What we know:
Radius of gyration: 21 Å
Shape: globular
Strand order of the largest sheet: 6-7-8-3-9-10-12-11
Number of domains: 2
Bound molecules: adenosine-5'-diphosphate, iron/sulfur cluster, magnesium ion
Amino acid sequence: MTALLELRNLKTHFKRDKIDIPAVDGVDLTINKGETVALVGESGSGKSITSLSIMRLIPSPPGKIVDGAILFNGNDLVNLTEDDMCKIRGNDISMIFQEPMTSLNPVLTVGEQIIEVLMYHQKLSRAASINKAVEMLEMVGFSRAKALINEYPHRLSGGMRQRVMIAIAMSCNPKLLIADEPTTALDVTIQAQILDLMKELSVKYDTSILIITHDLGVVSEVADKVVVMYCGQVVEEALVDDLFDEPLHPYTIGLMGSIPSLEGETDRLQSIEGTVPPPEHFPIGCRFAPRCPHAFDRCRAEAPKLVEVAGRRKVRCFLHSDKEATV
Length: 327
Ligand SMILES: Nc1ncnc2c1ncn2[C@@H]1O[C@H](COP(=O)(O)OP(=O)(O)O)[C@@H](O)[C@H]1O
Ligand code: SF4
Ligand SMILES: [Mg+2]
């Protein structure tokens, strides 16, 4: 498999009152061509800052990529000029967000917003852009695409708006689509439809997807690989089947316990006790130790490294790295 995107030891920090805030603190992550990777973790883990770093959209100051590489087709995006980065955004890498209403312009019709992107990025004529816009809206499942062109976003439901965002994001045939909590604001049935659509498009157009979510339940159907993030670091990485068969990291096991059952019996929901500490207060030693049911003395003194286990997955936990080291 060929790597499309490779994050190597990515560190994105913020400065507040001269304090260094290590929001993303040494992330390694690979997305192969055509692969769907899920980046999972509770709110505050550093998922969005990771994705905004890839897009080079970190507000600076106070934020800065302070170390590491973001290799896209082998080129390091960290060193690109803003002009070069502009060409990559929207052409090679597209992004969709949780709440499409904030990304869609309320005073422009749906058609205008897609046409604008096509004329700017693909340099299509207006007439060609209109045809292509209709085609894109049909592709994301709208049967009356021609009429929809003249509608304003507020007339659409949340699920329809997210479909429009996907149509816009896919209109330049990107190699990578980053979707940051794309279904969090939607109800469960619509969530499933949007995820199915993304999967279908990824297979059809050989687009790689980085799907970001705090809900592990969302990823089992769509992702090939899952990367679990906690306190600015990757704590586990595995193929989706391996992860669901046997989660290794105590944090992943905790996240699994928080997946609501299909029947929606929320009373069986077990959340992990405590909350994600803010980056300025990351514990020394294992960052999960204060919340981990298996923590022992070493965990509070020494930071575990991300190590490969079973030849095809990675985990950052002494319970597994020690076992591996003694094999
Ligand atoms: N503009 C900012 N200034 C300072 N700290 C920030 C800023 N944006 C994010 N952070 C820090 O980065 C952490 C990770 O944020 P984020 O990537 O948005 O988490 P997630 O998407 O996983 O919920 C936050 O908890 C916050 O402490
Ligand atoms: S290293 Fe220790 S504290 Fe950290 S996850 Fe593993 S057992 Fe828990
Ligand atoms: Mg986020």
